[in-house]
Design goal:
Structural class: alpha/beta
Number of domains: 1
Bound molecules: manganese (II) ion
Shape: globular
Distance between the termini: 51 Å
Largest sheet: 8 strands, parallel
Mean pLDDT: 94
Strand content: 5-15%
Helix content: 25-40%
Strand order of the largest sheet: 2-1-3-8-7-4-5-6
Length: 329
């Protein structure tokens, strides 16, 4: 064990970061420790993609880029995250690429198994955005209706696409219909780009979402936007979903549906880090498609976002799950 630090991660001063384990940030696997509080879970599914496929290779691309992280200490959040709670890499969910419905069931089942009876939490690495739906279902069973803080260029609240109800562009309408979202607590950040119809915006508002468009950040500033988000979610259990296409294609080219005019990396990190102290019960970073990436730009961004999400979670003790009582929305 001399190659490992006290919490089981590979020691970068003994084994250089470009060598050794291929787990996220070289943290231990789920089998290597007696118990754990937070699990990184890869979901290599992109069957809900509407444009460029390839996010199925996201989990391993993000893991590879995450070697570059130095996870022992997070300077901006002033904490040693891996010493606060036990974090593990739970590997990838084996899910079929041929049936969206079957894959959703496999992903939800895997999420339930990794979380188990305890207050363990997941940071999911996708996969396309469809994978957020089974994660919200698994978290909803444990925590009841959840406030969704959703970073994305797109609303993802369409009804259907080519008659398919479950796609990466429809997940949050399905979540609303399932009663998974707390009333008037959820918010989209970074929205921009074309839509098919003005009705898309009307529908989205009727589901109780607030929107901070990418251009709104020029007016609100990051601090103003963070204030809106924090007041919006209050003390509700929060699920943070980061579609990497919230970043401008200059900062995240490796994704399926890039839209110009997005956030820069520093803006996204500042907004994420300002969520410090919220009751984050689950999170994901999705839509990384390494085949369109260059020099690991997008994979490094997604790995850094995932590490920030983990660190935010380690700073807030898990809230005790209460039996969910949800009604169809
Ligand atoms: Mn999305
Ligand atoms: Mn998107």
């Amino acid at each position: 064990m001399s190659n490992h630090d006290p919490i089981g991660a590979l020691e970068a001063t003994v084994v250089p970061r470009f060598a050794g384990a291929s787990t996220f940030a070289r943290i231990p696997t789920i089998d290597a420790v007696p118990d754990y509080d937070i699990a990184v879970l890869g979901v290599p599914f992109d069957g809900g993609t509407s444009y460029r496929p390839g996010a199925r290779f996201g989990p391993m691309g993000v893991r590879q880029a995450s070697r570059h992280l130095r996870p022992r200490f997070h300077v901006e959040l002033d904490t040693a995250p891996l010493e606060q709670l036990q974090v593990v890499d739970a590997g990838d969910v084996p899910c079929t690429p041929y049936s969206i419905d079957d894959a959703m069931q496999q992903i939800e089942q895997a999420a339930r198994e990794v979380v188990g009876e305890r207050d363990r939490r997941l940071v999911t690495i996708g996969g396309d955005h469809t994978v957020a739906l089974p994660m919200l279902r698994a978290a909803g069973e444990k925590y009841g209706p959840i406030a969704l803080v959703h970073f994305d260029a797109h609303l993802d609240t369409w009804d259907t696409y080519f008659n398919a109800p479950t796609t990466h562009g429809t997940v949050f309408r399905r979540a609303f219909e399932d009663g998974l979202l707390a009333e008037d607590k959820s918010i989209h950040i970074g929205i921009r780009g074309p839509i098919y119809d003005r009705l898309d915006l009307v529908d989205d508002a009727s589901f109780g979402f607030r929107v901070i468009r990418a251009g709104d950040l020029d007016v609100l500033g990051i601090e103003g936007a963070v204030d809106v988000v924090r007041r919006r979610v209050g003390d509700a259990p929060v699920y943070v979903s980061v579609d990497i296409d919230v970043l401008d294609p200059a900062f995240a080219p490796g994704t399926g549906t890039p839209e110009m005019g997005g956030l820069n990396s520093r803006e996204l990190l500042r907004m994420l880090r300002a969520l410090d102290g919220l009751n984050i019960v689950g999170a994901d970073v999705v839509e990384t498609a390494p085949a369109y990436d260059h020099a690991e730009i997008t994979c490094v961004a997604a790995a850094t976002v995932a590490f920030d999400l983990i660190t935010l979670m380690t700073k807030t003790p898990a809230i005790t799950p209460e039996p969910a009582s949800m009604t169809a929305g």
